[in-house]
Each structure stands twice: as structure tokens, then as C-alpha cells.
Backbone:
């Protein structure tokens, strides 16, 4: 069937009437007006016409044989294709009830016979205009619906894309958060996440009286040696192996974190008591003491562990971690490869140490140090042969502080370099003054200790040259004391520096001989002039009267190598007599004099004591 008109410019009107005259009159009228007109005498012809081409308007007579106009209209309205085609009834019936029935069955208008032609045209034009408007509205609605569907589709696609981007961003954000809260090497929680876990545990402990937890702060004792000697790749492999062993030593509910470098933190939740925590620490130490079989090396490792037991008085999780860290450093100080439980006294000590460090920095800037001098006596003549320069700190509040209290802090903070250089400068200035005093022998020497840290400075020799130039001191009267650790840490570089000092005729003394590595091989390799026997060995001479301990052997070593032997810590006449009998050349200690200020040195030399 073809439901489309061939001539789209003309409106199609279907006339249905059983009277041929009526059809002819109306057809002629409408055709002259430019309409396409088709005629039907009954329902069957009307149906065929509509099945061929759908009309734009139907003019329908009511009074027809077989099927009247009312029934025809109802049938058209019941058919989907013709339901919306406007129907104008034409009838000689002019009763109101007939018109009402016409409108009820679906008619849109009613023309009474005999009809006025002009009226017919107006009513046809109006209904076609309404029909056109309806079709336009339908068309617009269809277009609008299509646009809505298209826009809805586009929005759905945009929404899907947006949801995809949101999901992607959430995944990226989650990944970035995971990276931000975890260690990139081991995948363990990092310090930030670990502190969050501690904070959560601390809050739980404050809310639940039965809840307990503990922190372990772990530091590997030999990791730096492995990392520096075997390389960072081996170091990373070792860290992975350590983290794996730590994980196998803990319960799934516990948290282990890498806090940085070779430091790890462990949060133990709900331990029964401190003994349970100690058992975990001991198990970890035992596991870490076993050899690590890496790809190319077998490595041995130990660790020091600090333990901090839950205290609900803590305000911040960082304080718990700080105290565990403090306990770990105490474990290291006690000999490493062990654990130590934090005690509040340790915190006070740490605060005091921090205050000492701050005061020490100010002391360096303000030069609050003074030099004391202890005589070194020749056991051959019994007279003073020289002095050792010993630094003291004149604290503005605490008074005189001995080096044993502040030198370790100075070494750790690097302040020892400035202090050491200042002592050397002051001692050389004093030696210069003494060398110009006629009452003082020209051979008088001054000994100054050099810290191992100084030898890492590239300009050490230049500094010493500058001090010698400024003070005009005779370098042959200057003796520099070094410990065994100095030459063991970087023997090649230190050997070069010592040779340069020897070229300047400066004497070199090995201090605290026997307390360090005690390897005789390096004594042949380095240009030393004397060995200082540590006071601990001198003290043992009286405790071991039969063989006098190791002192005779040390004096023998010095003599065989052409070095002078200087005994420290001589406090009794018995010790002095024993050293003389062993042919020890020099000695110093409280028997002769305690360290004294520079103004007392001249009085002591003028008195010319004899031992």
C-alpha cells in the first residue's frame, strides 16, 4: 500500500456521499480551489481510497445506505492510520442531537444541507489549517523527542565517560595514597602511616581500659658497613630480607613499618604484659642474628631494639615513637644486638643531652673554653719535659665542665672540629710565650689531641700550617696525639697526612695504645714518634705484681721500634718505681700534678720539682 501522496503541494480531500450530484458539486468547488479531490459513494470505496492514499481531510455524509456516516467515522477513528484525519459531517439532518452524535463519534465539524459553498470552503480551510498545525506539532514533537533521545544518549555517554574518569582518578588517588603511605622498596607502611596507627592505638587505649599496646624501634647495627662496602643494590636486597624476617616474627594483627634507612617500627597490639613484648624482641633478635643468604653474598646482621610500653598520658603518637627511639639508642650504647625498655629517666637524660648540645654550640660561638696543662715527666731526669693540653668548658651557669661530659657530644655533632682547632691554636700560642721565657727550657714540648673527625677535613694540613705561621712556634716542640681508630678508618689518606706532618718536624704520638685494635702492623707503616700506654694498664700493674700485666710488653714494643713510651695515669710512687724499672721514658699523672691553668705553669716550672 502507498500511504504517501504523489503531489505534496496539494491537500488531498476525500468526499464520501451516496448522492452523485453532491459529489460533483463539492468536487468541482474544491478542485477549483487547488485541492486534490477523490470521491467515494460508500464505505467500501472510502476504505479503498484511504488504503491507497491517506487523505488530509474527509467530508462525510451521514445518510448513506448499508453503512451510515456515523459508523464510517467510527471505523476510521478505530484504524490507527486514519484515526487522526479530521472528519467534517455533511447532512440534511439539522437536529441538535444529530450534531452531538456526529461530534461524539469523532467528527470535528458539521455542515448542514443545503450548504453554502463559501461556508464549505472556510470550514475546509480551517480544518486543514488545524490539521497542518497538528501535523507540525507532531513533527516538532517527534524532532524534539529525537533531539531529547540524542541528547540523552550523548549525556549517557558523557556520564559513562565521566564515571570512567572518576573511577580512574579514584584508582590513581588510591594508588598515590598507597605510595604516600608505604615504603617504595619493601611495601611496608612508612612513618606517616605508622604514626597514624599509633594514634589510633593511643585513642583506643584511652577509651578502653583493657586495651594495651607497645612500640618497638629497631635499628640494624651493621647495615651501613654492608651498604657502603657491597653497594646499594645489595643493601636493598638485605633490607627486603630483613623486612621479610620481621614479618614472619610477628602476628598478622601487628604493624611493621620502615621508618627510613635501616630503621623499622613495630606496633604490637593487645600484648598481655611487658614480658610478652620482650619475648617478641628476643625472637626478632634471634631471627636477625641468623645469616642472610643473598644473591651473591652471605651477610650477618644484628639489631638494637628500643621498647616503649603504652602510657595513656601521652598526648601525641610522636612522643611514643620518640621514647622507643631513645630506648633503642640506649641499647646501642650498652653494646648493640640487644633490646632496652624505655624508662622516663631516659627522656630527662635525652633532654639534658639536647640542652648540653645547644649550650655547646653557643660555647663554640662565644669561645667559652679554656686550656689546662698536665706535665709530662722524663723518668730519666725526673724533670718536666712537656705538657699535654687538655680542654675544659667554662660554662656560664654550671661552671667548669670536664671533657668526658662534652667531648662525646662534640664528636657526634661535628663541633669537635672547631673546638679541636681552637685548642691547637691556644696551645701553640702558649708554647710560643713559654719558648720566649728564659726560665723555661727550649726543649719543652706541648701535646695536643687531634680528633679522628679532623682527618676527614681536606684542609687539615693548611690549618696547621696557618697556626704554626701565626704563632711562630717551633714545630719540633709540638706533639700531636692520635688514637688507633684514626688510622684504621682510612689508613691511606691518614698516612699521607701523617707524612706531611712529619715533614714539618711535628712529633706524632699514638694515644691510648692497647685499648683499640692493637694491631702492630700499622705501627711499621706510620711515622710515629711515641706510644702512650693507657692508664688502665698502668693501674693493673699493682693488681698483677707477678708479671705487671701488659705494660712491659708495650714498653718493649716501643723500644724495639725506636719509639718513646709514655705512661698515663701514674698516681703512686710504687707505679713510678715499677715504670722506671721497666725503662719507661716518660710518665704523667696525678702523682706529678693534676691539670693546671696556664698561669700556674710558670710557678710549677720555676719550682723545678724533681721526681
Residues:
Amino acid at each position: 500500500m502507498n500511504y504517501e501522496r504523489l503531489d505534496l503541494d496539494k491537500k488531498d480531500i476525500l468526499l464520501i456521499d451516496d448522492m452523485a450530484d453532491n459529489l460533483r458539486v463539492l468536487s468541482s468547488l474544491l478542485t477549483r480551489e487547488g485541492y486534490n479531490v477523490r470521491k467515494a459513494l460508500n464505505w467500501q470505496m472510502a476504505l479503498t481510497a484511504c488504503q491507497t492514499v491517506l487523505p488530509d481531510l474527509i467530508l462525510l455524509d451521514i445518510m448513506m445506505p448499508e453503512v451510515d456516516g456515523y459508523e464510517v467515522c467510527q471505523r476510521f477513528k478505530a484504524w490507527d492510520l486514519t484515526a487522526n484525519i479530521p472528519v467534517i459531517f455533511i447532512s440534511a439532518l439539522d437536529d441538535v442531537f444529530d450534531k452531538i452524535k456526529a461530534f461524539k463519534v469523532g467528527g470535528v465539524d458539521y455542515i448542514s444541507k443545503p450548504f453554502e459553498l463559501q461556508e464549505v470552503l472556510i470550514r475546509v480551510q480551517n480544518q486543514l489549517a488545524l490539521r497542518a498545525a497538528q501535523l507540525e506539532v507532531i513533527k516538532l514533537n517527534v524532532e524534539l523527542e529525537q533531539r531529547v533521545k540524542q541528547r540523552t544518549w550523548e549525556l549517557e555517554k558523557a556520564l559513562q565517560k565521566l564515571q570512567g574518569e572518576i573511577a580512574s582518578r579514584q584508582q590513581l588517588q588510591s594508588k598515590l595514597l598507597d605510595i604516600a603511605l608505604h615504603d617504595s622498596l619493601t611495601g611496608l607502611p612508612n612513618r606517616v602511616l605508622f604514626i597514624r596507627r599509633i594514634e589510633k592505638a593511643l585513642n583506643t587505649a584511652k577509651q578502653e581500659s583493657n586495651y594495651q599496646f607497645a612500640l618497638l624501634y629497631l635499628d640494624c647495627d651493621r647495615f651501613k658497613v654492608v651498604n657502603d662496602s657491597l653497594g646499594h643494590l645489595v643493601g636493598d636486597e638485605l633490607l627486603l630480607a630483613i623486612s621479610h624476617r620481621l614479618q614472619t616474627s610477628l602476628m598478622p594483627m601487628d604493624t611493621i613499618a620502615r621508618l627510613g634507612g635501616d630503621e623499622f617500627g613495630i606496633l604490637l597490639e593487645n600484648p598481655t604484659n611487658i614480658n610478652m613484648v620482650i619475648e617478641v624482641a628476643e625472637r626478632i633478635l634471634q631471627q636477625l642474628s641468623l645469616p642472610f643468604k643473598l644473591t651473591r653474598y652471605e651477610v650477618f646482621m644484628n639489631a638494637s631494639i628500643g621498647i616503649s610500653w603504652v602510657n595513656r598520658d601521652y598526648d601525641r603518637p610522636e612522643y611514643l615513637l620518640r621514647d622507643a627511639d631513645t630506648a633503642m639508642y640506649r641499647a646501642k650504647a650498652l653494646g648493640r644486638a640487644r633490646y632496652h625498655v624505655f624508662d622516663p629517666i631516659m627522656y630527662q637524660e635525652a633532654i639534658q643531652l639536647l640542652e648540653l648540645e645547644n649550650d655547646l654550640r653557643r660555647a663554640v660561638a662565644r669561645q667559652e673554653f679554656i686550656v689546662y696543662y698536665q706535665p709530662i715527666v722524663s723518668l730519666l731526669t725526673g724533670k718536666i719535659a712537656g705538657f699535654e693540653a687538655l680542654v675544659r668548658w667554662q660554662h656560664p651557669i654550671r661552671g667548669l665542665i670536664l671533657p668526658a661530659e662534652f667531648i662525646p657530644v662534640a664528636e657526634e655533632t661535628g663541633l669537635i672540629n672547631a673546638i679541636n682547632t681552637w685548642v691547637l691554636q691556644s696551645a701553640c700560642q702558649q708554647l710560643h710565650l713559654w719558648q720566649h721565657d728564659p726560665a723555661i727550657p727550649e726543649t719543652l714540648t706541648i701535646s695536643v689531641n687531634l680528633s679522628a673527625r679532623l682527618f676527614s677535613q681536606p684542609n687539615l694540613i693548611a690549618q696547621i700550617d696557618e697556626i704554626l705561621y701565626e704563632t711562630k712556634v717551633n714545630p719540633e716542640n709540638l706533639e700531636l696525639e692520635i688514637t688507633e681508630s684514626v688510622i684504621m678508618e682510612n689508613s691511606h689518606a691518614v698516612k699521607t697526612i701523617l707524612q706531611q706532618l712529619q715533614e714539618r718536624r711535628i712529633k706524632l704520638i699514638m694515644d691510648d695504645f692497647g685499648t683499640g685494635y692493637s694491631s702492630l702492623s700499622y705501627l711499621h707503616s706510620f711515622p710515629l714518634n711515641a706510644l702512650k700506654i693507657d692508664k688502665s694498664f698502668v693501674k693493673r700493674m699493682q693488681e698483677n705484681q707477678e708479671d705487671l700485666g701488659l705494660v712491659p710488653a708495650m714498653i718493649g714494643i716501643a723500644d724495639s721500634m725506636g719509639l718513646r713510651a709514655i705512661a698515663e695515669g701514674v698516681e703512686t710512687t710504687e707505679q713510678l718505681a715499677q715504670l722506671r724499672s721497666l725503662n719507661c721514658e716518660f710518665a704523667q699523672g696525678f702523682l706529678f700534678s693534676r691539670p693546671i691553668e696556664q698561669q700556674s705553669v710558670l710557678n710549677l716550672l720555676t719550682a723545678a720539682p724533681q721526681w
